[in-house]
Amino acid sequence: MDAPSRMINGTRFDLSKLRSLSRFLSPGERSPAPAATSARVVCVASGKGGVGKSVLATNLAVARASQGEHVLLLDFDAGLANLHLLLGLAPEHDLGHVLDGKVQARQAVVPGPGGVHLLSGGVGRHTLASPTRRELDRLFQALRPLEDDYDLVIVDHGAGMAYSTVAHLAATSTLLLVTSHEVTALSDAYALYKRARLVNEHLRVGLVLNRIPGESAEAAAWERFKSVSLKFLGDCPEYVGSVPQDDAVLRSVQARTPVTLAEPSSRASQAFARIAAWPPIDHARTPTAFYDRARRALA
After folding, report:
1. Which of 102, 177, 185, 291 is the most buried (most CB within 10 A)?
2. pTM for the full model?
């Protein structure tokens, strides 16, 4: 087992059992056309914490909602959720309450700024941090009705390779992989990309470099990631773009308001708008309902 694999295999589940859902199809059988009634689902993930993934997820949601889409942000950062803080919200219910059966998923959703809706992930909940396969199956089943209510669902995952993240990546069609230009962040992002390809051979991955100090750092980071991916995996993700270091983001976090709303003309806001225009987001609908596929990936 190589070093990247060792970094992400620290789990009580056998992640290798989560493979592409194409294995459920008979030889020569094609996946059915995407269901028009199901929401498009985009997963946002990172290999390393602290790269600004959740800030990107919130601003992506706001940018898409500003175009008239009905957008749900789903905080799947197991027990360490912070999207509610970034949006200035204090939800009464969260994913933990849904998992425990205390409320239905729709009852846990709250409206947020910019027309975005949020289902918070909860803070300090052990069951969310380390769910069993049965608990995840029950949670995925409870989340399925939300797909009928929205145009776009953006799932913000915790850093690294939790079992719930792997199940989501096995089911989704589209992943935004967020990293910084630092070597450790790039290494962990590569490990996540490698695992994602193993569990979903049809996954479309876009790489976003966040908090970039300048063009030279951006070019060097992308070249490093691309060259390693091509050398060892034979392909690489699409390069979506970068978000510059910008004090406007720090101010927006302190104000608990997405920077795209607080300072729409800032450099970071303009970068988030470009990322939100990545074409695969418009086509991120899976052949069958997303959470039905995620449940099958658990089998």
Report:
1. 291
2. 0.88
